[in-house]
Amino acid sequence: MVENVIWPAYLDAECSRSEGRRVAEDLAVPAPTVDEIASAVQQVGYDAVIEREQTYPREYEPRGRVVVKDADDASKSDLLGAVAAYVAALRE
Predict the structure, then answer these.
(1) pLDDT digits over 37-46, tens only?
(2) Is the pTM of this model over 0.90?
(3) Which residues have a Cβ under 8 Å from the Cβ of 28 and sit 6 or more positions away?
(4) What are phi and psi of 80, to 5 degrees?
(5) Which of 30, 12, 19 is nearest to 80 (CA)?
(6) Which neighbouring-strand residues pair with 67?
(7) Chain-centre distance of CA 66, in angstroms?
(8) Residue 50 burial (CB < 10 Å; 0-12/13-18/19+)?
(9) Listing from the earlier edge strand, what are the strands of the sheet with 47-51?
(10) If pLDDT is split at 50, 70 and 90, which confidence band does 72 have?
């Protein structure tokens, strides 16, 4: 059972690569929330668990994180790209 963790900084357009962004700038969205990320993960077809009190190691304020369960069939970069696209679509 593979668990992937998605921090909001991975998808944040306001973060640079060195600050933790892991998707391309054109896929990133400004200030994504864990609720948006969890909804996008469920749209992609995986189970999501929100952990709100967690703090990304490169940040000071806790924004939470989303744990993706049973994502055995996708690489992390593919998963992040799909989730980023769905978060952008949710905001439209």
Answers:
(1) 999 999 999 9
(2) yes
(3) 11, 12, 13, 15, 21, 84
(4) -65, -40
(5) 12
(6) 5, 49
(7) 7
(8) middle
(9) 3-6, 65-69, 47-51
(10) confident
Helix and strand totals (H; E) in the chain: 2, 3
Structure tokens at 60: 């000071």
DSSP state letter for 32: -
Angstrom CA distances, 17 to 4, 14, 27, 87, stand at 19, 10, 13, 19
pLDDT of residue 3: 85
Q: Determine the pLDDT at residue 1.
A: 67
